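Quick one: Ig-like domain-containing protein from Xiphophorus maculatus, structure tokens please.
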Amino acid sequence: MFSGESITLTCEVQGGETTEWTCEWRRSGSIIHKTDSKDWTFNVSESSSGNYMCQCRSRDDWYSSTQWSETIRLSVSISNKVFVTRQPNWPLVFSGESITLTCEVQGGETTEWTCEWRRSGSIIQWTDSKDWTFNVSESSSGNYMCQCRSRDDWYSSTQWSETITGDFISYKPRAKLAAGSSTIPVGGSVTLSCSVKPSAGWKYRWFRRTSDTSFVEFSRNNEENREITVTQRGIYKCDGKRGNPSFYISNKVFVTRRPIWPQMFSGESITLTCEVQGGETTEWTCEWKKSGSIIHKTDSKDWTFNVSESSSGNYMCQCRSRDDWYSSTQWITLLLSLSAVVRILPNRSQFFPYESVTLSCVDSENSPDWTVKRNTAGNETADWGKRNGSQHVIDAVYPFDSGRYWCEFRTGACSEVINVTVTDGPVILQSPVLPVAEGDAVILRCIHSDASSSSNFTKFYKNGLLIGSSSTGSIAVRDVSESDEGLYKCSITGAGESPESWLSVRVCGWRSFTYSKLCEMFLISVCFKIRTKQEMF
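--- reply ---
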């Protein structure tokens, strides 16, 4: 209901249809009104929101009364008009750029709001203010709308705003450099232009390199600098920036790889590609370095080879066109794993009693000779579960099954350790079992033991502090980093809270060794990461 509308509440007394009643009304525990009949008609306002209950007395017998009724909840929406604005309001926004959506409430400029955001009909975010700032990705496209509640009156809310459409481009644009001529006449000049199409709001930086110097910026800041006039010979390049913080686009060289599996084993094939932005139509001859030493040359941008243990290292590339060399500005870390991997189904670390759990193991040799081990609260290490082909199965877990689990192979290989918690409580948290790679997205989901329960308002905590709430039972943690590591738990209104689970983030690009006393061997953590490096020359 909206502020100003009329409502009638009726206190129905079963079997007392012919009795004349005097009734008393409570809102959120406090007596607020009395009526000489079962009906109470009034105009609602923002302060009318709350839980209502009633109790009646017969006019003929004042000392007897009915019981208090069950409560009925009344929510009053604030009539202020609500709309969504976006900054910056560029017609095209690219993956990785930052935007701010604001839920504007007319007449509520001085009010402190808590706002709820929907995208294409689904609740995706709660904010403690009218503003929501995030980095866009391909999945960010959709129709956005918002609704706000005053922090002082949680039961009242605004109407839902009209939708605003966000069309975000999944690829990153490229700066294109063009020259009217590549030859400077004696005493003359050449005009160079830089553009990022089809988009607006860019400012450009210019760099020049000679045979004696590396690239040096020579453009003036705080100007668009789309076109410049040069009178000196050299190799020129440009890049564009816009937004706050600045989002840069250039014609850099970078390395990609296929496949992009987080783990690779000896003998598998990989392709590294030296991508030159803005040079898609050029024919390149490329040179490859590993850990600082030249190891290979190719007549194209691609290099395909089978990896081995000696393949681990830091890879860089540099390509030559007919005119000159282009500098290498980024490099990739390729790490090789010879460790084993443990998998668990369902893919979570918390379980209710009597659930069935399956673990399986795989190593680089696809060895069939492996065993699942566990170490429980009693500090006893033992085989666990029953073997069913390539899997270990336990038909029903119990709280005493809580503990650490891992795979051991006859070859001596050992997987990472996973923690399993079996709780008698009504709520569990679904979160990643194994470490997640830096930059990935993580979905946290709160699960009720009673699937038919209507309770679904969920709060999520990290290290004991509230980090978000949801009416869908789940939240997303995007672009995870080391700062997202910690103990997570959730609670469902009226049901309870889950145990805590540790979320671990693997920072890519570093070879890390973890010694496991349980397995008496070293485990190799593996991941890929493109890292920025200063330009060569």
